Amino acid sequence: MTPLSTSAAQVYEKIKGPGTRLGDLRTLAKEIKTNHAMALELWATGELHPRLLAILIMDKKELAETVVDQLIHDMDSHTEDERTQLADWLMANQLTKDKKGLAMLTSWENHPSALHRRLFWYHQGRLRWVGQQPPENTVELLAAIDSHMAAEEPEVQWAMNFTAGWIGIFDERQRSKCIEIGERICLYKDMPVARNCAPDYLPAFIESELAKRSGKK
Taking Cα atoms as reference points, which of 71, 168, 61, 176 lies closest to residue 115? Predict the structure, then answer.
C-alpha cells in the first residue's frame, strides 16, 4: 500500500479494524466533510471501509464519467457483496446528488459492465421505492426485465427484480405483469426468508409489501 499522508493515515487507523460500523464511517465523514485528496488516498488502499468512507467525502465536481468508470472498475477486485455495497453507496451518496451523476445512471442500461447495469436498474427501482413520481418508462423497463433478467449477472438480476417489485407495488396496471414475470422466471423462489424480512421472490415480495400498506401485516 502506498504510504498515506499524516491526515489520511490518522483516519485510516480509526477504520481499518473489522469492528468498524457503517455509522462510524458516516460520523467521520461529517467531521471531515468534502476532501477529495484524502478520498483518493483512502480509495487507493483497496480496502472496503476506507473505500466506503472515500465515497462519502469525494467531491462531486471531480467525478467525471471517466473517473466514475475507473472507480467502478476498481470495485471488481472485491467480493460480490463488497462490490455491490460499494457501487450502491457510490450511487446513493454521489451519483444521485447532481444532474451529471443522474445522467450517467440513466445511460447505463446496456453498459458492458455488470456493475454499471446494476446501478441503472437500482436507480430505477429507487425512483419508485422512495415515492417519487416515476419516469414514463415503466412499460419499456418491464419489457427489458422480461427479456433479459433470467440471463443477467446475479448482481444485475437483483436490481432488475427490485425494480419490477416496486413497479408491481405502485403501478396497479402493471402488477399482474410483474407477478407473471416472477412466476415464470422463478428467481429467488426457493430462497429462505429471514424472520421479519420481505422475500425476494417477486410475487411474494409484491404480496408482502401490499399487505404492509393495507395494514394487514
Answer: 71
DSSP state letters, 87-104: HHHHHHHTGGGSHHHHHH
Does residue 34 sit in helix, strand or coil?
coil
Residue 214 φ/ψ, nearest 5 degrees:
-95, 0
> How far apart, in whole angstroms, are the C-alpha atoms of residue 121 and residue 115?
10
The residue among 103, 184, 53, 175 whose CA lies nearest residue 205 is 175
Nearby residues of 198 by Cβ (< 8 Å), 6 or more positions away: 205, 208, 209
At 35 the pLDDT is 98
More confident residue, 62 or 213: 62
One-letter amino acid at 86 equals L
Rounded to 10 deg, the angle between the 154-170 and 80-93 helix axes is: 50
Q: CA-to-CA distance for 132 and 41, rounded, in angstroms?
A: 36
d(CA 76, CA 184): 31
- In a 13 Å sphere around the CA of 79, the CA atoms on its Cβ side amount to 4
Mean pLDDT of the chain: 94
- Which stretch of 18-22, 150-154, 175-179 has the lowest confidence by average pLDDT? 18-22
Under DSSP, the state recorded for 194 is: -
Separation of first and last alpha carbons in the chain: 50
Amino acid at position 121, single letter: W
C-alpha cell at 177: 405483469
